[in-house]
Amino acid sequence: MTISDNAMIPPERIEGRILLIRGLKVMIDTDLADLYGVTTKRFNEQVGRNVERFPEDFMFQLTDEEWAALRSQFATLKTGRGQHRKYLPYVFTEHGAIMAATILNSPRATEVSVYVVRAFVRLREVLASNKELSKRLDKLEQTIEARALQHDSFARNTRVQLKQVFDAIRELMAPPEPQKKRPIGFITGEEKPKKDG
């Protein structure tokens, strides 16, 4: 199946828009509106007309703090006349994203909603596989430690090396930490790092 308007959407484009807020995987209203091919204003009007279809586990409005954190993290605030939001954005869980596609009642929204659901499912599978891998790794580490205690011949050096391997695997499994952005503007002489030498 292809998306209308020559807009085949790669899964990474959707997955990159799924955020973790309040422990839930969600998409912000502007991103869903863009994917579904409507303006954010029209998208939110339709949601407002059908608010009974969006319980809190489908959709919720961000707090000032959550919105400020998102804006600083992703630099989502555009400049220029008419670009600032008057209201805090809404975010939609997987079920809310599907419901939004049904109220928009357009072929594009219906087609894209399939891709949105697949992106949520894929993320859920990745997270589940990491949890399962983590459990297995813990069990393997405990088994090796138990055997090491039973056999004095199991060298301390070997135990240390195995622990380093387990730690390295856990580090690879951990999600990457957000990188600190370099401030925009000039750096004064006081702020410049000292060079050695």
What descriptors fit this protein?
single chain, 197 residues, alpha+beta, Mlu1-box Binding Protein, DNA-binding Domain, four-stranded antiparallel beta sheet, 7 helices, 4 strands, elongated, disordered N terminus
List low-confidence stretches: 1-6
Q: Structurally, how many domains make up the residues?
A: 2
Strand order of the largest sheet: 1-2-4-3
Number of helices: 7
The average pLDDT is 75
Distance between the termini: 63 Å
CATH topology of the largest domain: Mlu1-box Binding Protein, DNA-binding Domain
What is the C-level CATH assignment of the largest domain?
A: Alpha Beta
Percentage of residues in DSSP E strands: 5-15%
Beta strands, count: 4
Q: SSE string, helix = H, strand = E?
A: HEEHHEHEHHH
The helicity comes to: 40-55%
